[in-house]
Amino acid sequence: MCGSSSKTWPTCLGWRGYDAAHLELTATVSLPTLWTQATLVDWAIAITLLEWLLLALYHRRTGRGLHPSRYAWNLVSGLCLMLALRCALQGADWWWGAGYLAASGAAHMTYLRQRWATAR
Asked: How far, in Å, CA of 93 to CA of 54, rounded?
């Protein structure tokens, strides 16, 4: 922690010897504000898709690890949950969030059915 009583990042950087005026920040972003925006959800979605891509490429090149079809429905379910959260944070119409939640449930049920079929 920077020891500043302010909750803004430029002030915190200023305590560590940085000149906050030269950072050219367009807006002061506090952590509570960042937490309630959809930006964090966008980053989580991007990281999840990047992880999926890297796992798929790893499996394709080496033949090791899970085949992408083994976890695709689970991935879709998680992404739909993140999209529903994003809709709620941005104040979208309720039916968008409800649609993503329904799609998440359907994808999760498909994933479970696929897992049960391979376990038999």
From this structure: 34
Q: For 26, list phi and psi in degrees, rounded to 5.
A: -80, -25
What tokens were used for 47? 């990281």
pTM of the model: 0.70
Delimit the domains of the chain by residue range.
Answer: 1-35, 37-119
Quote the tokens at residue 78. 């998680």
pLDDT in tens, 88-117: 999 999 999 999 999 999 999 999 999 998
Cβ burial of 116 (10 Å; 0-12, 13-18, 19+) is exposed
- For residue 27, give both structure tokens: 């807006």
